[in-house]
Amino acid sequence: MKFKGGIHPQYNKGTAALPVEEMPLGARYVVPLAQHLGAPGKPVVAKGDRVGRGQPLSEPGGFVSVAVHAPTSGKVTAVKELPHPLGLEMTAVEIEADGEDAWWEGVQPRGAWREMDPAALRDALRDAGLVGMGGATFPTHVKLSPPKDKPIGTFILNGAECEPYLTSDHRVMLEQPREVMEGVGLFMKVLGVTKAYVGVEANKADALDALKAACPPDLDVAFALLEVKYPQGSEKQLIYALTGRTVPAGGLPMDVGCLVQNVGTAVAAYEAIAKGWPLIQRVTTVTGAAIRQPKNLRLRVGTPLGDVLAFCGGLTEDVAKVVYGGPMMGIAQFSLDVPIIKGTSGVLCLPDAEVVQYLADACIRCGACVDACPMGLLPSTLGVLCERDRWEDLEDFNVADCIECGSCAFCCPAYRPLVQLIKRGKAELRRIQKMRQQGAA
Amino acid sequence: MSMEQDKTGASPPEVAAAGGDPPAPPPAKPAPPDKAEPPRAPRLVVSTSPHVHRDQDVPRIMRSVVWALVPGILVGLWFFGLAALQVYAIAVAGCLLFEWAFRRMLGRPGTLGDWSAVVTGLLLAMNLPAGSPWWLVVVGCLAAIVLGKQIYGGLGYNPFNPALVARVVLLVSFPVQMTTWPAQGGPLTVDATTAATPLGAIREALSVGQTVPQAMAGADFPVWKLLVGMRGGCLGEVSVIALLLGGLFLLRKGHIKWQVPVGFIATVFLFTGAAWLGDPERYANPLYHTFSGGLFLGAFFMATDMVTSPVTRRGMFIFAVGCGLITVIIRLWGGYPEGVSFAILLMNAATPLIDRYTKPQVFGAKRKLYEEAKAA
User: Fold this and answer.
1) Taking CB atoms and an 8 Å cut-off, how many pairs form between chains A and B?
2) B335: CB partners within 8 A, 6+ apart
3) Is B30 close to A334, i.e. CB distance below 8 A?
4) What's the pLDDT score for residue B21?
5) pLDDT confidence of residue B28
6) How many CB atoms lie within 10 A of CB B192?
7) pTM value?
């Protein structure tokens, strides 16, 4: 099935043919305690402590929270506020590597997932600090704990990778298909589901073939090539494309009995159980015309961005923007002192010539954004309402359903910053609704 | 109104100047940045996603419209000659001048670069008779740019199609000049005599007690002449084929949606067809109605104006059907032989209302689908 709306940006997936390279060990790592949606963790180490590779540096700060772990062995040199990719300074653990890269004694294989209890698997994934690695970084164990009245019947593996430029998921599917499929089986076991779908965009047919060939015979998995269209990898659009089910507005995938996980998360889950590895490494695409040697890299979480860029030959002189993630939803960075975090699927380096700086014009009501919106919203109207501070009217236009995919702003001929306007509008509306609730109480 | 998108003050040249050297890449272990001399960090642009943009902007859309108008303009020049050229030249120059002058007067940034004034000028000229005196055209430009557009805030804020505002202002202010149709004189020349428009001829005949078949026999407007453009009328409206050519180009480019021209033209055809079947003595046949007057110009180039028409496909279709209905009502029973301009302006006024009631279906808003899915 094809979802309505969406866009066809330039894909620029030049790194798709580059095998994943292991980035050599660095001298310094910075591990922020907040790398997931939800409460940040509480530090359990202090300056001067020696830590082993994979040792927990924090404990979860609540149910919707996970720990972070030491990316390598070394000495904690600071626990303090340091630049975070979200643009703020946040508490992070700084580690000086000792170069030995010795595992912490607590890192032990957890067993074979086929023989393990679902609850034990879920706890092990939580202890491994697993979060959604597609970029949203929602704690995996929370997603795997649906309420009793929302049973999950279908597991979906998201291999769409619809963001332009990014090829990390593509490479993982090609190079580690067995780990990916074992991860799928593991998730199915945790959820107790018997049916799974694997969806991959049609421009990565080789990846789908690889997964198909690596699928363990005991799993009932349907493999599907999806239309190449952004945002194919958005949960609601993906579920619709694969199963024909429509997640209700304001609802979650579990409302239609589905659960979606990203390719990278599947591998991390498998490794967390089979090898006992906490989430301390990931595959990241470093790309764009402003990086001298684009690469797909296997990186330790906490590697300073500057080290990564240097390993890729450095930035070109005309660099103008460095983005964490893809060009459609990625976050532009203020500083090169930030670390790679669990959700960093890509580092996109754009040169001056490709960075659009502009003055927005008035909306000419061409309707391009209306055609492009995969959620059936009226971005043009939302933008105008936000511009005029008419926050409460946003409710009538379902602003909360916006997934901020950027399709509207991408195709706006007046270069209106629609996502920016809508994000602001959502925040203002939430504030008003909260005030209303307090007033009513 | 405009706002700055990127929050950093880093304009491109500054970025280049401050770009500096990236951290020198030592082969194995990069030195921690707090040791030795820290490399100068490049200045980065920070803005909200998305960080890429489709290759499309307002001036490009407007230039496409200009290209799409070219066939209609050329046919007008062929049939009406230098008189037509004069009207086009004054209209475009006038619109540009008023746009420039008025923005300047208000202290607003110039907008000549968006090409919308050129489009307005061309469309205004296409809606005027070939022999229009220069002052009439200038008044039209003033009405279009100032009254139709800039007093609302400029492109994007105008509720009515500027060229049509001008046409109607002129039509009610200078009815004689606006309904004096020079006869086509042959290639590139205009005749000194005047001629009736196809719709005017019928209106005339009915008013002296003739029937429509009698009027049509006297007027000599076979369908092929209407298609080619051999008839009296406004400069740009005469040739159905030329307008269709331009319209198809815009459809292909995606700048107009089929819902508008198809809805508009089909409504006129069906409605006039019904009237004709009911009483062929009183009403002309639907082909005659479809191919005469300003219907094709209106349906492909005026009703499709993005700013003043609805944003959703469904809204566009409702808008177009409304245009068609009002056009036919005016033509058959109203005070004017032609009603396309009035119809579009009236529907322009209804656009916010249509938009309000044609909001698209939000993804997942359908309750039923959800229940079905749960059952499955």
Assistant:
1) 260
2) none
3) no
4) 40
5) 44
6) 9
7) 0.88
Q: Do A404 and B373 touch (CB under 8 A)?
A: no
A230-272 confidence digits (pLDDT tens): 999 999 999 999 999 999 998 999 999 999 999 999 999 999 9
> Nearest to residue A366, comparing CAs of B30, B260, B335?
B260
CATH 3.40.50.11540 in chain A is located at 113-274
Instruction: Check: CB of residue A224 under 8 Å from CB of residue A199.
Output: yes
Three-class secondary structure of residue B191 per DSSP:
strand
The residue ranges of every structural domain in chain B are 57-194, 196-231+256-355
With the C-alpha atoms ordered B65, B68, B73, B74, is the resulting torsion angle positive or negative?
Answer: positive
Fold of A113-274: Rossmann fold (3.40.50)
A415 Cβ under 8 Å from any chain B Cβ:
yes
- Collapsing DSSP states into helix, strand and coil, what is residue B93? helix
Chain A residues inside the 8 Å CB shell of B154: 362
How far apart are the C-alpha atoms of B205 and A135, rounded to whole Å? Answer: 73
Give the burial class of A148: count Cβ atoms within 10 A of its Cβ; 0-12 exposed, 13-18 middle, 19 or more buried.
exposed
* Residue of A25, A150, A311, A319 to mutate, testing the B interface (most B Cβ within 10 Å of its Cβ): A319
Nearest to A413 among B50, B56, B366 (CB): B56
Contacts of B367 in chain A (CB under 8 A): 248
- CB nearest to A361's CB, from B2, B29, B33: B2
pLDDT of residue B366: 66
- pLDDT, one tens digit per residue, over B306-344 is 999 999 999 999 999 999 999 999 999 988 889 999 999
Is A360 in contact with B3 (Cβ distance < 8 A)? yes
- Among A309, A315, A384, most B C-beta atoms within 10 A, so best to mutate, is A315
For the record, the structure tokens of A142 come out as 């929370």
Question: What residues of B are in contact with residue A361 (Cβ under 8 Å)?
Answer: 2, 58, 114, 155-156
Enter the tokens of residue B7.
């929050």
* Structure tokens belonging to residue A384: 């105008």
